[in-house]
Write a structure and sequence with these properties.
This protein is mainly alpha-helical and 94 residues long. Helix content is 77%, strand content 0%. The termini are far apart.
Length: 94
């Protein structure tokens, strides 16, 4: 049976990575992203690549590689909170 933590981490990272890359390719930045966090569209793509790398690690866990999935999920959640906070903070202002 597959590890449910690894499976949920894989889905989270895959969707988050693809979403970040799409956001970076569109190039539209909020004021908070530009002025407060000094992000660029390239920053979004870098976050996306990082998430996809994490999704690859979760895929290896699902395939049977003995990696701890809970610490990987913790890294994914912390990175996700930091990433989302960079543009969600100003969502109500615009």
């Amino acid at each position: 049976m597959h590890d449910p933590t690894a499976l949920s981490g894989f889905v989270l990272c895959l969707l988050g990575g693809l979403g970040a890359i799409v956001k970076g390719r569109r190039g539209a930045l909020t004021w908070w992203e530009r002025e407060v966090y000094h992000m660029s569209p390239r920053s979004n793509v870098r976050f996306g690549i990082f998430y996809l790398a994490l999704a690859g690690l979760f895929a290896l866990v699902i395939a049977g590689l003995p990696l701890p999935s809970v610490p990987l999920l913790a890294v994914a959640v912390v990175a996700g909170v930091l990433y989302v906070s960079s543009f969600a903070r100003g969502a109500g202002d615009e």
